Amino acid sequence: MKDPEKVKEMQKQIDELMKDPQKKKAVEEYQKMTEQAVEKLRDDPELKDFFEDVQKNGISAMKKYENDERILEKFSRATGGVQAWMNQMSPGMPGMPPRPATPQYKPGDEVIIRGLAKAPELNGKKAMVVPPTAEEKKTLEGPGGPGR
């Protein structure tokens, strides 16, 4: 960010991105999601000093926390991390890889849980895929049943 040419090029890419209504909407939705996550974090007692510092000293206060793993982890969990940004933006942002296909799992597959915002304590845990119950199948099918 210290190189003025790189900043200028990045701004040019952002300006181009924002000309496309679909891409602009994706940026705005991600921004809204991030703002909501930050609002929830304001209630976290471990982040009280961080928010007070930023409110008192402005955005430049964030420089002090850029390597604080505890704070970075909380923000990453709350916002869904880099993967959420990539999912929201790709393939709309220049240089972003296309969104990967949703993986298909079968009962018995071992997986690592990631991206849970409402139960972040489970992220990183190993789990095994199990077949859905009859009730879960109905929920997955949605209203009107399969294929409707």
Strand content: under 5%
Pairing-aware structural class of the strands and helices? mainly alpha
| Mean pLDDT over the full residue set | 78
Overall geometry: extended
Poorly predicted segments: none
Calculate the terminal CA-CA distance, rounded to whole Å. Answer: 50 Å
Q: Please provide the count of β strands.
A: 2
Structure write-up:
This protein has 148 residues and is mainly alpha-helical. It is 51% helix and 4% strand. A two-stranded antiparallel sheet has the order 1-2. Helix 2 crosses helix 4 and helix 2 runs antiparallel to helix 5 (81-89).
Question: Layout of helices and strands, plus pairs?
Answer:
Elements (H helix, E strand, L loop, with lengths): L3 H16 L1 H21 L6 H10 L11 H11 L1 H9 L20 E3 L13 E3 L5 H8 L7
Antiparallel strand pairs: 1-2
